Amino acid sequence: xxxxxxxxxxxDYSFPAVSLAYFLRYPNPYARHVxxxxxIDRQFDPETQRLSTTxxxxxxxxxxxxxxxxxxxxxxxxxxxxxxxxxxxTSVVDVKEGWMKTETRNLEWTGxxxxxxxxxxxxxxxxxxxxxxSIKDLVxxxxxxxxxxTTTTTLLSKxxxxxxxxxxxxxxxxxxxxxxxxxxxxxxxxxxxxTQSLQRSIEGVGLRRTRAALAKSKDGMNVVLDRxxxxxxxxxxxxxxxxxxxxxxxxxxxxxxx
Length: 258
Known about the structure:
Elements: E1 2-11, H1 15-23, E2 34-45, E3 50-60, H2 65-68, E4 84-94, E5 99-106, E6 114-123, H3 135-139, E7 147-156, H4 161-172, H5 178-248
Antiparallel strand pairs: 1-7, 2-3, 3-4, 4-5, 5-6, 6-7
C-alpha cells in the first residue's frame, strides 16, 4: 500500500531569499532536533548555471510509540531506542530560471516505513524572468515577489512484505492434497489481509506526522527568512548560533534525550 500527501503554499519572499534560507534552515526554533548537517557532494554546472547538492542530516528521531505498538515485541531490538536517524537530501537550484527541486528520504527503518518528500520551489510568475538576482534581493526586496512551493510526500510500508512473498511462493510450489491446499490458501489470505492492514495503519501514522512536520518546516523557514530580512546573513548566523546553544548548551554538548 502507498499513501500520498500533497500541499501547496507561498512564501512572501523572493526566490533568491527562499533558496538561500533553505540551505540555512537548520537549526531553527522549530527544528532543534537536527543534530548535524553535512554536505557530501556539491557540483555547479557552468553551462546550465545549476547547483546540485547532496546533504546528510542527522536528527533526533525515534519510531513513534503508536507504530511500535503495532509491531511484534522485540522485532527491532535496541534500534528502536537509538534516538537518532539519518535523512538524505538532494537538491538542484536554477537561480537564472527561478526554480529549485529538492528530495529528502529517510535512511533508517525503511522496511517499516519509507518516507520520500519532494518539493518544487518556483519564482512567482509576476517576477520578471530576465531580472538578474543580486545581493540586495536577499534582504531588501519587495514583499510582493513571492515564491510558490509544492510538496509531494510518498509513504510506503513494506513491513511483512518479504514474509508474504515467501508464503506465496511456498503455496505455488506446494504439491500437497487439495484439502491442505485449501487450508494453506485460507491461512495465506488472512495473513495477507493482516499484513496489509498493518501496513495501512503504519502509513496512516506516518501521514499524520508528515502533516505536522510540514507545518513546522514552513514555520521554521519563515523564522530564517525573517532573520534574513531583519539582519541579513549575519542575523541568520546569529540566530543559528542561539538555536544551537538552546539545543545543545553553551559548551556544545548534546542535551540528554527525553
